[in-house]
Design a protein that fits this description.
By secondary structure, this protein is mainly beta. It has 3 domains: 1-91, Thrombin, subunit H; 93-212, no CATH class; 257-443, no CATH class. The chain has helices at residues 177-184, 196-199, 428-436, and strands at 3-9, 27-33, 40-46, 50-54, 67-71, 74-78, 85-90, 101-104, 114-120, 125-130, 137-144, 153-156, 162-168, 171-176, 209-213, 217-222, 232-236, 239-243, 250-255, 264-266, 275-283, 286-292, 299-306, 315-318, 324-330, 347-351, 358-362, 369-376, 383-389, 401-406, 415-418. The longest helix has 9 residues, at 428-436.
Amino acid sequence: MDVLFVLKMREGSQNNTCADAGLPSPCVFVVAVDGTDGETLWERPLHPEFHWAQCGLEKETGRTWDCLLSHFDQLTAVDKYSGEIRWQQPQPPGLHSTVPVLSVPDLDGDKLSDVALVASDVTQTQLIFLSGKTGVQIGSTVALDSTETPKPLLHCTTEGSHYVLLQKDTGLYGLALWRIAAKAKAGMEVSLKKDKHWESHANATSGLVPIYESDSVRQVLKTEEKEDPSNLLLVTGKEVALVNGKNLQLLWRFNTSSVLSEPSFGHFNKDGVLDVVVEEDIGNYTKRIIILDGKSGDELWEVNLSATPNAPRPASIHTINSISIFVFWGVMPTETNSSVPLKSDQRSYMLHPLYSKVLLESTNVMDHIITFKATLLERGRHAAYFLLTGPGTEGDEGTVVLTKRKLKQDIPQSKVVRIGPGGGSETSEDIKEAFSRLRFRDW
């Protein structure tokens, strides 16, 4: 896997400068680097200032670009393989803040998937359709019946009907894409599928389909299952809940408050259903990491850690043995030097579900972490993590470092930490050997 950066610089690594491109300096550089050795594959200077970027849009769209950037007063679509600009259009008014980009089915009949921009402020949420081929707006801007949608999602039902998921002060709702398309341009909804089951629950006036009632919906995630459709995980002010993505039935809820980070998914047991990792603030600079059973919502495993500043969210990587290796950050309460954990105290921990009374502790990261991602590199062989470190405050100048390490690289230097009653009967060498034997695969 290669890596894409959006950086503010005066000069790139391939002798490209902002001045040579006729741009103010410093300017925005989109840079692709080789995931193997970090060598620059291509770089593209763009006009400052930078607002937002979204890459990794859904695959198999027929489009020749994968990254959409908002900068200056423009929207620019960039081909991730070459860095070529596929189209550039004026920024729609009022959309300079971070705007989620949804990949939607072909609406203008050119056989390429299109995109939707969704922008929210304190008064309303607006949606704009853009042609995936040219970036030209399709139809008019649509005002949606929602005022609190920080991260809208697009959900596809078993009937192939798409719904935009909207957060309101009364809960989570779905609004059919065909309804939005019809408001943007009469007749544009003809090519979109309708779901009779979901529409039977729709409000006659607004068209909103109630999915989960709560006055404090904070996060909504789709489970990363291969099943179609994905289930929906909700975090509210007092619970975590899982809703069936097919029939909208509540599968389970788990009471919790003060969730610190976006939950993640992995296989702790071997029932084939993704389990849920939740970080809960329990006060006194301490967090509880809980793994919930994806089928029942029951608690499967937990540990308390001192909560260090700037800790990434938990991650997991799947193995060929139908379990996942879980990675999370913090510091054992007995290890911290003070009652208030410092960034320099931070450790990463790996959990092997078959040896759940021990953790493998690593202390190799001391810098400010900008982002962290655990991923599969070679199918059936190598898992790794990418770690981006750099200045601790946005806007500060300094060196940004991307580190790629195989997950198994840390095993020999890691410390085996015993947790829970007994702490397991295996020796530290046995535990490290079990981690070293792991083979990884996709979900």
